[in-house]
Write a structure and sequence with these properties.
Strand content: 25-35%
Structural class: alpha+beta
CATH class of the largest domain: Alpha Beta
Order of helices and strands: EEHHHEEEHEHEEHHEEEHEHEE
Radius of gyration: 19 Å
Number of helices: 9
Largest sheet: 9 strands, mixed
Low-confidence stretches: 34-38
Number of strands: 14
Number of domains: 2
Shape: globular
CATH topology of the largest domain: Aminopeptidase
Length: 295
Amino acid sequence: MAPHPVKGGVTVRPMKRGDVPAAYETAALAFANGSEEARVSDRSPAEVASYRARYHHLIENDPDGSWVAESEGRVIGVALSLRREGLWGLSLLTVDAAHRGRGVGKRLLEHALAYAEGCRARITVSSTHPTAMRRYATAGLRLRPTLKADGAVRRKSLPAPLQGVREGDEGDLDLAAEVDRRVRGAAHGPDLAFMLRTGRLLVCDLPSGRGYAVMQDGLLALLAATEAAVATRLLWACLAEGKEEGMEVRWIGADQAWAIPVVLSAGLDLSPAGPVCVSGEMGPLSPYIPSGVFL
């Protein structure tokens, strides 16, 4: 596909594997500010490799949804999107700070949205930045406000070992796919298998319902269940297994009321977070804590 010029000498073109190091650098710095910038630059080689692996995964599985903006031979913007069983998701959209306000993000999003053609539903998660929320709203997505919970877990509040929650493995991917289709209208497919390469899978399979959660780097990365009681057990299990120095649970929307008593009982603090943005026909999205990367 031919590159698409943007005003100001910027070109939008399909992302290639060779773009991954520069795209990662652009995204990492774009999302960093102040003290966070130092933390980004201090990431270990293993952490950097993990981030880059996500980019490679999406390029391989969704080449038509992967785009970069380029100026004078340098990557200054990135958009990564995916399609799974009729559900389109925007995994990443970012522009270098020096090139914002010039229409680059808008053009990247337009190309990513073209990959949604024929899909019955769309989903992404947003930061609290006004421009980001405006961009998704004007693209026809409904913004669902959310909260995040973070802080050190109050260990004495943890319940006794939870019956029915067990360690999962690749043999549970069919169970997870069944839950995904009921909750979000589409399975995660190759994305869940990819997450398990570096993460842990917790499964709860009861006569009353079933669900699963993925933990990565000691944090909750994704949770889906067919009923609130199962989701509650899984969330407690994740908090018990999580980082000693602090946990974070993001994207707690109004339809995830089951999660609020858990995080408050665990001693976490609530604060506003960016919205989950959706459109079209999908599942109830509850009980559900989406992945920020794979939705």
